[in-house]
Amino acid sequence: MATHCVKLSKFFKITGIRHQSKQNRGKSFASSAPTSEARQLEALTVLLHGTCSQKCRRALHARLAVAGAIRDTSIVMGLVERYLSLGKPAPAASLFAGVYRGRPTVYSLNLAVRCFSDHGFHRELLDLYRELCAFGSDNFTFSPVIKACTAVSCLRLGRELHCRVLRTGHGGNVGVQTALLDMYAKAGQIDVSRRVFDGIVQRDLISWNAMVSGYSLNGCFLEAIEELKEMQQGGMRLNASTLVGIIGMCGGFEAKDVGSSLHAVAMKYGAIADESLTSAFISMYSAFDDLSSSRLVFDLQPVKDLVSFNSMIAAYMQHCNWKEAFEVFRLMQCAGLGPNLVTVVSVLPSCNDFFGINQGESVHGMIIKFGLAEQVSVASALVSMYSKLGKLDSAVLLFCYFTEKNNLMWNSMISGYLVNNQWSMALDSFCKMQIEGVTPDATAIINAISGCRHTKDLHMAKSIHAYAVRSRFESNQSVMNALLAMYADCGDISTSYTLFQKMEVQMLISWNTMISGFAEIGDSEASLMLFCQMCHDEVQFDLVTLISVISSLSGSEDATVGESVHSLAIKSGCNSDVSLTNALISMYTNCGIVEAGQQLFDSCCFANTITYNALMSGYRKNNVSEKILPLFYQMVKNDVKPNLVTLLNLLPVCQSQLQGKSIHSYAVRNFTRLETPLFTSAMGMYSRFNNIEYCSKIFSLVGERNIILWNTFLSACVQCKQADMVVDYFKHMLFINVKPDAVTILALISACSQLGDADFAACVTAVILQRGFSAKILVLNALIDMHSRCGSISFARELFDSSAEKDSVTWGAMINAYSMHGNGEAALDLFSTMIDSGVDPDDITFVSVLSACSHSGLVEQGRTLFKSLQADYGITPRMEHYACMVDLLGRTGHLDEAYDIVRSMPSRPSDNLLESLLGACRFHGNSKIGESVGKLLIESEHGKSRSYVMLSNIYASAGKWSDCEELRSDMEAKGLRKDVGVSLIGMT
């Protein structure tokens, strides 16, 4: 740069160019033998064009001004061009306007306009033209100025130019008309474009292409095709520019036949070799789901450029053909072509969706090699890739390394946190983004809303809503729909509905969000109301709508409505979708119509894992558990892979511990990450088989234990009669600051009931009172039962009397307490008080009061209560009620009546009931009824010796020794032995 300045200084000292008049300079340049001054001026012009340094350029500008050469057109335009090439439009405009402020020639104005247009400074061009347009314009001026209006979307100035063109008589120039046609088309005014096109007398290929492109740009597919036909009829030879726009529309309009015809036309006119057409055809066939044709077009291209490779990679990626996309990427490398931004942004998703971290890191290395790592779009794609691969630390490192972060980069990082369930970090990033001066866009707001949906942070949700309102995103449908879903997920469905009502445009997704929101909280009435309103407003429902409505129906009273929705689904043609079938199976089984759910399942051609799970869950809910395992075997036979929900349906119905272990082992082998529900269900299964050892092992293997796991383990200890373990683990909970809840306290109370220690019961009660759990009605009911089992009937009554709120369980617990202590009169008095207070007894309360009558021998009262069970309260007697009455009548010697009850029962009597009656027959010496009951018991039992011994004793008491011997022989033949008695005396 210093050398250039020295040479320039010496040059001016030697030459000493003086200012000449315009006329003299004109003569000088017009002469056949240029003067020395003209040659020196020409040398300066050459030097000007070769000057790259801004300092030298300014010095040269100053020297030229001093020498008087600054008014020469070639010198002025040389300076203007150099300023523009270095991205300095303002000095260029100032220079030109300053030089020609007097009155620039149209020729010089055209040169300047063309120069600004070539360098892409369209706004500056328009500013310059506004300042100097009064000095005249011609055809060469109007075309670039109109194109500038098109580039900056300045339709108002474009219309003014159109008027000026018509006034000045340049409206017949085909170049100007073509520029106007293109401007109106890109502004969306295709009708005006057509009128301009119709006014062109001598249409050339450029004007035809502009009209076809305008139709394509505005989605006028049929009009573009007609224009193409008219071109051919007019003898115009089509080229790539003519076809590329229409080819791009074929995919959107699913016009495969038209696309094939255009392909043939391109081959006919020899335009197929054009690189832009190759990429367009690849994309077109990809839109038709015809990747083989896309690949054929790609393979037939003799020389493949980067755009063609990118198009083929994008086509494969759109169809999730990750492996093929990467193979094309390798071919591109073998062809010696380096990737660009489009390439790497297209290829990176294949790493997180198919290949994995090793391939992703390799692509990352290639990106660094080709110098693309500093590009924000590439860095954002890398952050997204590492996040989706679970390498959140690498994503954060890349994000922090990048200094200039825009919306795209922040959005990628926030999405990365969301993908890795780091909801709080996503929300923190949303706040930091604003602190660093980056204004969140719609995507960032939607991501933040998604974070609030998972954290259930209603305060933060309202803050984001307020920000969206302040930032004028209320008109953005995606943001508003995300807000609807957020409030619904945060449990504030009323705010969600209010927001929905205020929306100017309620799209289908908005209706679906509200319908599913009410369905999730079980408000089927509101879901149906919205569905009816939606149909009334003539908003066409879709599959999601039907599934949401169906999922809201769960009660038996909803069955009729569910059948109507099912009929609507059949009429609309949606019933073939497996997701809808799954929802219908769940709906019918939830409504208690298991047969309908079974029929739907049998008619489903493509039953998937969710289909099997829906029917299994229906079986469980309707107590048809015996059908679950055969359905599971059918599932395995049909190669349908079970998931976590399947195992959760299987574990509670396992018929043996071996089955449970097998299911547990399957989960350990096949699931990389075991969820809390599986741990709790497995512990529940093992506790059913009294295996507290396995429950302890599962509990110890869990790293992060939440309160649900603690409660499940404590409940397992209670079920396995390990009360001491419950107490020890409860102490450990308090020691490590795990906050117990009501379920924890109930498990502790149950353990205390098993221990039967009144002093310890008092300590537990003190802890419960201290921690404020006594206000919960469930805990109070359990405390009443605990103290009654520990012998503190008086304290149990104090707790009962102190309770301000009493439900049927509270009354039943106190009645049962009196029953256990043999105080039948007190139990009956309390039962009468319960009826007088307006609380209707349930079936469990009747079991308690009938048991009290049995223990106290209150036959008449028991008979009256048993009759009122169904007559007055509509409760169908269960096995427990029959057992209480048989026990009452057996104890008091009313054996004939007790046997009549057994024979009138709607179902087979239980073994315990028959044993109770058989014992009463032996006690009262009634061998006739005893023999009948004993035979029923022996026929029903398999492998138990107790029933044989009891009947044998009855035969012996009645002197029927032959029957006694025959029974004992039968017992020996079956390999049954009498249980050996055990005495606790003398045992430690």
From TrEMBL:
<feature type="repeat" description="PPR">
    <location>
        <begin position="204"/>
        <end position="238"/>
    </location>
</feature>
<protein>
    <recommendedName>
        <fullName>Pentatricopeptide repeat-containing protein</fullName>
    </recommendedName>
</protein>
<dbReference type="Pfam" id="PF01535">
    <property type="entry name" value="PPR"/>
</dbReference>
<feature type="repeat" description="PPR">
    <location>
        <begin position="305"/>
        <end position="339"/>
    </location>
</feature>
<feature type="repeat" description="PPR">
    <location>
        <begin position="608"/>
        <end position="642"/>
    </location>
</feature>
<keyword id="KW-0677">Repeat</keyword>
<dbReference type="Pfam" id="PF13041">
    <property type="entry name" value="PPR_2"/>
</dbReference>
<feature type="repeat" description="PPR">
    <location>
        <begin position="406"/>
        <end position="440"/>
    </location>
</feature>
<dbReference type="InterPro" id="IPR011990">
    <property type="entry name" value="TPR-like_helical_dom_sf"/>
</dbReference>
<dbReference type="InterPro" id="IPR002885">
    <property type="entry name" value="PPR_rpt"/>
</dbReference>
<dbReference type="InterPro" id="IPR046960">
    <property type="entry name" value="PPR_At4g14850-like_plant"/>
</dbReference>
<dbReference type="Pfam" id="PF20431">
    <property type="entry name" value="E_motif"/>
</dbReference>
<keyword id="KW-0809">Transit peptide</keyword>
<feature type="repeat" description="PPR">
    <location>
        <begin position="807"/>
        <end position="841"/>
    </location>
</feature>
<dbReference type="InterPro" id="IPR046848">
    <property type="entry name" value="E_motif"/>
</dbReference>
<feature type="repeat" description="PPR">
    <location>
        <begin position="706"/>
        <end position="740"/>
    </location>
</feature>
